[in-house]
Amino acid sequence: KFWAGSMPVLENCINRSPLWQYVQNFNLTQNIRADPNEHEFKLWLIKLGEGKLKSSNPYAENNLIDIPNQCHITNSIVNDIFPNFTSSRINDVIVTPLNDDADALNNQVIDKFQPDVMARSYYSVDTLIETEESEVTHITTEFLNSIVPSGFPPHTLKLKVGCLR
């Protein structure tokens, strides 16, 4: 297979590292994120972590499971996770693997935070420095503004007072 999934890549990389001899395996036994009264959900999470869950669909692949209804997103992930967003939730996070998704979610959260306060937009510098040797005349400003290198903020950064700590 030309492209391997994440697990084969990890299996072929981590255990070949010189640091592998120092790796220890820990099992989490207590869920500190679920509500203490959600006993059924806590048991479901433990079974999930142990790999003991299966799909109720007899035709489903082995690695598929049923997600409880309370975990389904009904409208918007931001509205479902932060129904009444206030500054007390400012350190909570929604984890996403793609920066584009994180940027879109950040903008939704900023819009939800103090909706009566106007967000302020900050823009990156979009001037191209050309020299005689450079071949950058064909690169447009729109293209430059669409690039978001890892570790850099997007071209347009929306902020509100009190939204960062």
Could you describe the 3D structure shown?
The chain has 165 residues and is mainly α. The chain has helices at 6-13, 39-50, 77-81, 99-112, 141-146, and strands at 120-123, 156-159. A two-stranded antiparallel ribbon has the order 1-2. The longest helix is centred in the middle third of the chain and has 14 residues, at 99-112. The radius of gyration is 23 Å and the shape is extended. The termini are far apart.
Give the topology, please:
Layout: H1 6-13, H2 39-50, H3 77-81, H4 99-112, E1 120-123, H5 141-146, E2 156-159
Antiparallel strand pairs: 1-2
Short description:
The protein contains five helices and two strands. It has helices at 6-13, 39-50, 77-81, 99-112, 141-146; strands spanning 120-123, 156-159.
Name a few traits of the molecule.
165 residues, 27% helix, 5% strand, extended, mainly alpha, two-stranded antiparallel ribbon, 5 helices
Q: List the secondary-structure elements in sequence, H or E.
A: HHHHEHE
Give a quick account of the main beta sheet: strands, pairing sense, barrel closure.
2 strands, antiparallel
Distance between the termini: 46 Å
**Shape field:** extended
Helix content percent band:
25-40%
Number of strands: 2
**Assembly type:** single chain
Nearest-integer average pLDDT: 81
Give me the side-by-side strand order of the main sheet. 1-2
Task: Return the structural class.
Answer: mainly alpha
So how many helices? 5
Proportion of residues in extended strands? under 5%
Low-pLDDT segments, ≥5 res: none
Cα-based radius of gyration, to the nearest Å: 23 Å
